[in-house]
Sequence to fold (179 residues):
Amino acid sequence: MIDNTLIVGFLGLVAAGIAGFFSILQLIISKENKISEFRQEWIDKLREELACVLSSVEALGASAEKGRQGENFSGALRNIANVLLRFNPAEHKEIVAKLESLQEEIIKMKADDITSCNFTNSLKQIENEAKIVLKSEWKRVKEGEPRYKLTYRIVRIVSIGSMISLVLASIVYCLSQLC
Fold:
């Protein structure tokens, strides 16, 4: 027969282990939720800055046709630079390349003192690529961070395993009491 103090000690260790497990779980969930909040904020700011790029480049094109591009160059270039700084070049190659190409077009336009330009095609390509990036980032926010998904799977496995172990232990105990 097993001593009751040994059972109580063992159950105390199990309870401490469960409490520690849930503390770590809560820490991971909190961290991953914060990352998702930051990612959502990044998406919102990116959307704003992309709108600034599109509108400032349109304004530059319109003012160039009237021969008054002046400060519109620096505004358009600054807006493009702000957006470029938000992207990871390795992860967002297509839109970075399109933005850099537009940036080069604007710099060339200023250097050559060109008064007629049409950025419509470039802006449409950037807008289409931005939609793809924003959609993929939103999907990432909606589904959760990879570590969160992994933690969720582990918790499900541990919970199901714990329930099965509890049922089996109860059955074994009941059977031992019958014999």
